[in-house]
Specification:
The structure holds 2 protein chains of 2 kinds. Chain A is an alpha/beta fold. In chain A, 33% of the residues lie in helices and 21% in strands. In chain A, the strands form 4 sheets. In chain A, strands 9, 11, 14, 15, 16, 17, 18, 19, 20 and 21 form a 10-stranded mixed beta sheet that branches. The longest helix of chain A has 25 residues. In chain A, 52% of the residues are buried. By secondary structure, chain B is an alpha+beta fold. Chain B folds into 4 domains: 84 residues, Elongation Factor Tu (Ef-tu), domain 3 (Beta Barrel), CATH 2.40.30; 72 residues, Beta Barrel (OB fold (Dihydrolipoamide Acetyltransferase, E2P)); 234 residues, Rossmann fold; 142 residues, Bovine Mitochondrial F1-atpase, Atp Synthase Beta Chain, Chain D, domain 3 (Bovine Mitochondrial F1-ATPase, ATP Synthase Beta Chain, Chain D, domain3). Chain B contains 16 helices and 26 strands. In chain B, strands 8, 18, 19, 20, 21, 22, 23, 24, 25 and 26 form a 10-stranded mixed beta sheet that branches. The chains are: A alpha/beta, B alpha+beta. Chains A and B meet through strand 5, strand 11, helix 7, helix 8 and helix 11 of A and strand 1, helix 1, helix 4, helix 6 and helix 11 of B. Strand 5 of chain A pairs antiparallel with strand 1 of chain B, so a sheet runs across the interface. The structure holds adenosine-5'-triphosphate and magnesium ion (MG). The site of magnesium ion has 4 residues of chain B, from helix 3.
């Protein structure tokens, strides 16, 4: 047993020079390198891999023991030599120098290297891209309504500043259009404190990324956007870094520069697949569908980097996009995402088949922060009730649709027929809107009233009689041009 | 360094072990001989907190409660000579701690908005002066768990200062009434073996060890939650156990928040285990504003929060459950009824899985370690109503949320939990997506306590509670069978006597079971209101039988204004008085009688 004379107050870290370099690899396995006998390196440290031909590659330490260090290489290991590869341990975790002036209006790769011919990021404080957990005491509960101009969202799944609200989509559905429409129309953008959009692409196609860029350009916000692009043909492991780089920038802009930042992360499914690839190479015991058991914690370390803080003016709002494999909402990726985020907007193939845009299925969709973001002084006093009523009615209407499909539309009860009509109008007029149609919250709520008033009053148990008088009947009256005004008590 | 964790006494030069492996939150250190199992350790320069979880040959395995980024080979590991413990004393109420009881408010004040590694602080305020009134005098014989004196911890809570459970002997000295800090010595006890114990207003207790009590009781006192579907249909007892399983967004957290606000427990311990930061912030913002209907004081004055959000280190998530329950047991030992919410026990189980995976243990189902079931059992075993060591009655009620992957209840955490709890409040995705809340599926849920709490209800609201409940349940079950036909043929296809069942069930579902957490009046319903509401619904149901028997088309009765009044009762009547129900009952009788009479007249 080794004892020392040091008093317990003295604690040691592993003393070492700031940069360590090793040559030669013990093993190469998928995206992983194993270097033997490394002394002094530490967990999560950033490494540079120097190869004979080509630019240096980036990586980080996944585990370290007396026998070896295991390193994941973001650019992949293809072309690496077991003998001549040199590995430099940089003495710190993966860091990024962030400043507002150097990132706004720029395009970077998935690791934060310029793609636009502009300068490297060098100014500003160097931040660990993993971020730090936010003390819940320091948070402010998000409750500022963001008008997106999309009825399915504003009326029934309201977005608020500092929320993380993902879009659950399926391959080929209109998630990109919807996300672009939200960015264009969100009232958050008109704020005088300055706004920023951070766009992080993980494994998306060139044309999709280009579509976003053009949409930002057309709406004249390009100088407020920073794009971090890991495209479909870029190395998969790099995707593990991209959202973290993007969120490090977002946090800086929000909490140091006081800006309202909207972060789009697309496509989180590709991110999760990269994580699975690394976990499999490490030989870890998988949990569901081959994904590692820590997928929840890993996703949380991304999604929780959103919100508002006391005494700091800015906010980080996240709209992650993911495609559900086989449209299956119980697949681990949407499932674990739903367990972390503050709701979800679910797109539905059957609505898309009826040419409804945006094809939002409101029933499985949810905004958990809605109840605090709406109501008198924020949207309107009747908002919660009318949304609840519309939900209940549409849920019942779907039942009626199902029944009508079995027994035929003629043979259902008169009340079910009314519900059928409501479902049709709801899908066509409330959900359905043009990609450039920007509805105010008043328009959205009035439309909701118009729809529920298709039903007899006994069916409207979620509504207050007084609200029916002022919003519901008020509407029919106005619509019918009947001079009944003097009836008002 | 800024660390107020205690140093071991004795002053002998300490040997340090060295890190030999780092893999996420798990490290190994050599030599193992310096540690004992479950010892608290500090790692590296930043003195990251950790706990020894296995000793094998030369090597100790340690789970580290903070992010291990930057820890490398050769970093020092220093044992503190104590197991993972919590500090128990006045000053817990109204505070929020992380999974290893670091005070988050102080951390925020001192270090800012983010949680940095290696930054700690004393769990309990050392400067605050508490007014202590001794209840025992020098010369008396004391045993563990007895009450030494009292401190007013909040305007509504008397904190009973307890003799630590393992201390026993003659009270040699006790301070006079007055103001003391936590560090002041307030008493000395000498044991039969001549050992002398200096007592303070607080003591420490290892979190993984159950606090002892004299005797377990079979509780017959319901824990009233103000939630109709729970209290009336699936009641919980003080000292009972309940699980709330459900897929994402089905209402686990809101249900637990509702219970935190409205249950008639004396103390609430709320553990946010691996869940959202904003939800903890929500509780922290709401509770100081909401008043306890019984005491009229802000609810935060009876609440203690433990927060290990999903972005905080995973090992501390594992510990948070134990930190919370030890605090709960401590207040139980003062003779209080404590309700503990754990949101979510699945995240805790996943923390176990993650650590176990790093240890390269042999996994059982879905990668969970084989000891998952026994850990869950041991957790729920810490619930109960007991006679305390000081001969009072106290209880810990455990309510755990379960987050099954894909909402599938056959997965390991849900299915094991089911074996260890008496109440199972199954949340339903379908109900939640129709915004039918609380989305508790009454066909899948159950409570093993309904018979036990019946005498309480009889004393409180009079005869017939259980019969009423059982009848309502029957209607709901019959309705469920009929719904299979309705789904295929529509409601129109049913004869009127069956339509009546459907209508009765609709009244129960919409007028009774459904309860909005966000409606000011409906958010809480006292036992009387629950009973009267159920009674009037079943009364109407009985009267509808007469309508059907008289061959009056049911839809004519369904147009009666009294029915619409019933639907709105839950959100229009605030109090517990019976008069409005009596009035409505008379209205129902009048309207139905009129209907029957007119029909009778017209058919002759
Ligand atoms: N009793 C209730 N009254 C009204 N609304 C409710 C109620 N319960 C749940 N909700 C609604 O459902 C949403 C989701 O509830 P909650 O956050 O409790 O789900 P959860 O089961 O905890 O989900 P997760 O597992 O993802 O944390 C809430 O934001 C709220 O809109
Ligand atoms: Mg929850």
């Amino acid at each position: 047993m080794k004892t020392t004379d040091q008093p317990p107050e003295i604690f040691r870290s592993s003393a070492r020079p700031s940069i360590l370099e090793y040559i030669g690899l013990e093993r190469i396995n998928g995206p992983l390198l194993v270097v033997q006998g490394v002394k002094g390196a530490s967990f999560d440290e950033q490494v540079e891999i120097l190869v004979a031909k080509g630019p240096p590659r980036q990586g980080r330490v996944l585990s370290i023991s007396e026998e070896c260090a295991v390193i994941e290489v973001f650019e992949g290991t293809s072309g690496l030599s077991q003998v001549s590869t040199r590995v430099r341990f940089l003495g710190h975790p993966f860091e990024l120098a962030v400043s507002r002036e150097e990132v706004m209006g720029r395009v970077f790769d998935g690791l934060g290297q310029p793609l636009d011919g502009g300068p490297l990021l060098t100014k500003g404080a160097r931040c660990d891209i993993n971020g730090l957990p936010i003390n819940p005491v320091a948070r402010v509960y998000p409750e500022e309504f963001i008008q997106t101009g999309v009825s399915a969202i504003d009326g029934m799944n309201t977005l608020v500043r500092g929320q993380k609200l993902p879009i659950f989509s399926g391959s080929g559905l209109a998630h990109n259009e919807l996300a672009a429409q939200i960015v264009r129309q969100a009232r958050l953008l008109s704020d005088d404190q300055g706004f920023a959009v951070i766009f992080a692409a993980m494994g998306v196609r060139h044309d999709e990324a280009e579509g976003f860029r053009r949409s930002f350009e057309e709406s004249g916000v390009l100088q407020n956007v920073a794009m971090f692009l890991n495209l479909a043909d870029d190395p998969a492991v790099e995707r593990l870094i991209t959202p973290r780089v993007a969120l490090t920038v977002a946090e800086h802009l929000a909490f140091e520069e006081g800006m309202h930042v909207l972060v789009l992360l697309t496509d989180m499914t590709n991110y999760c697949e990269a994580l699975r690839e690394v976990a499999t190479s490490k030989g870890e015991v998988p949990s569901r569908k081959g994904y590692p058991g820590y997928l929840y914690s890993d996703l949380a370390s991304i999604y929780e980097r959103a919100g508002r803080l006391q005494n700091r003016p800015g906010s980080v709002t996240q709209i992650p996009i993911l495609t559900m494999p086989d449209d299956d909402i119980t697949h681990p990726i949407p499932d674990l995402t739903g367990y972390i985020t503050e709701g979800q907007i679910v797109l539905d193939r059957s609505l898309a088949a009826k040419s409804v845009y945006p094809p939002v299925n409101v029933l499985p969709s949810l905004s958990r922060l809605m109840s605090d973001g709406i109501g008198p002084g924020r949207t309107r006093e009747d908002h919660q009730d009318i949304a609840n009523q519309l939900y209940a009615a549409y849920a019942r209407a779907r039942e009626a649709q199902r029944l009508a499909a079995i027994v035929g539309e003629e043979d259902i009860s008169p009340i079910d027929k009314l519900y059928l009509r409501l479902a049709r109008e709801f899908e066509a007029r409330f959900l359905g809107q043009r990609p450039d149609e920007n509805r105010t919250i008043r328009e959205t709520l009035d439309l909701a009233w118009e729809l529920v008033m298709l039903l007899p009053e006994q069916e409207l148990s979620r509504l207050k009689p007084a609200d029916i008088d002022s919003h519901g009947r008020g509407q029919t009256r106005a619509g019918a041009q009947v001079p009944w005004g003097e009836e008002d008590e | 360094m800024n660390n107020s964790r205690p140093q071991i006494q004795g002053g002998a030069p300490e040997a340090l072990a060295e890190v030999t492996k780092v893999s996420g939150p798990v490290i190994k250190a050599r030599p193992a001989s310096l540690f004992v199992m479950n010892e608290l350790v500090e790692v590296g320069e930043e003195r990251l907190a950790g706990e020894v979880i296995s000793l094998d040959g030369e090597l100790a395995t340690i789970q580290v409660y903070e992010n291990t980024s930057g820890i490398g080979l050769g970093c020092s590991v220093h044992g503190l000579g104590l197991p993972l413990y919590v500090e128990l004393g006045p000053g817990l109420i109204g505070r929020i701690f992380d999974g290893i009881q670091r005070p988050l408010q102080e951390l925020c004040q001192q270090w800012g908005d983010f949680i940095h590694r290696g930054r700690s602080g004393a769990p309990l305020d050392r400067e605050h002066l508490w007014t202590f009134s001794p209840l025992r005098s020098a010369g008396e014989q004391l045993s563990g768990g007895e009450i030494l004196g009292e401190v007013a911890e909040s305007p509504i809570l008397t904190h009973r200062v307890l003799v630590p459970p393992e201390v026993e002997g003659r009270l040699e000295r006790i301070v006079p009434p007055g103001d003391y800090t936590l560090d002041d010595l307030i008493a000395r006890v000498s044991s039969a073996t001549g050992h002398s114990h200096e007592l303070k207003l607080f003591h420490r207790w290892p979190v993984r060890k159950i606090r002892p009590s004299r005797k377990r009781l079979l509780s017959a006192d319901p824990l009233i939650t103000g939630q109709r579907v729970i209290d009336t249909f699936f009641p919980l007892t003080k000292g009972g156990t309940a699980a709330i399983p459900g897929g994402f967004g089905t209402g686990k957290t809101i249900t637990q928040h509702q219970l935190t606000k409205w249950t008639d427990a004396d103390i609430i311990v709320y553990i946010g285990c691996g869940e959202r930061g904003n939800e903890m912030t929500g509780v922290l913002t709401d509770l100081p504003r909401l008043l306890d209907p019984r005491s009229g004081r802000p609810l935060i004055e009876r609440t203690i929060l433990v927060a290990n959000t999903s972005d905080m280190p995973v090992a501390a998530r594992e510990a948070s459950i134990y930190t919370g329950i030890t605090i709960a047991e401590y207040y139980r030992d003062m003779g209080y009824d404590v309700a503990l919410m754990a949101d979510s026990t699945s995240r805790w189980a996943e923390a176990l899985r993650e650590i176990s995976g790093r240890l390269e243990e042999m996994p059982a189902e879905e990668g969970f370690p084989a000891y998952l079931a026994s850990r869950l059992a041991a957790f729920y075993e810490r619930a109960g109503q007991v006679i305390t060591l000081a001969n009072n009655t106290g209880s810990v009620t455990l309510i755990g949320a379960v987050s099954p992957p894909g909402g599938d209840f056959s997965e390991p955490v849900t299915s094991h939990t089911k074996r260890f709890v008496q109440c199972f409040w199954a949340l339903d995705k379908e109900l939640a997506s129709g915004r039918y809340f609380p989305a508790i599926n009454y066909l899948q849920s159950y409570s093993g306590y309904s018979r036990q709490v019946e005498p309480w209800w009889r004393r409180r609201v009079g005869e017939g509670w259980l019969e009423l409940r059982d009848r309502a349940m029957e209607i709901l079950q019959e309705d469920a069978k009929l719904q299979n036909i309705v789904r295929l043929l529509g409601e129109e296809a049913l004869p009127d006597d069956q339509k009546r069942i459907i209508e009765g069930a609709r009244l129960l579902k919409d007028g009774f079971l459904q309860q909005s957490a966000f409606d000011e009046i409906d958010s809480y319903a006292g036992p009387e209101k629950q009973f009267f509401l159920l009674e009037i619904i079943l009364h109407l149901f009985d009267r509808l039988a007469e309508v059907v028997a008289a061959r009056i088309p049911l839809f004519r009765a369904l147009e009666l204004p009294a029915i619409w009044a019933i639907y709105r009762l839950k959100s229009t009547l605030k109090g517990d008085e019976s008069a409005p129900f009596q009035a409505l009952r008379e209205q129902i009788d009048l309207e139905i009688d009129t209907l029957l009479r007119r029909h009778h007249e017209s058919s002759f």
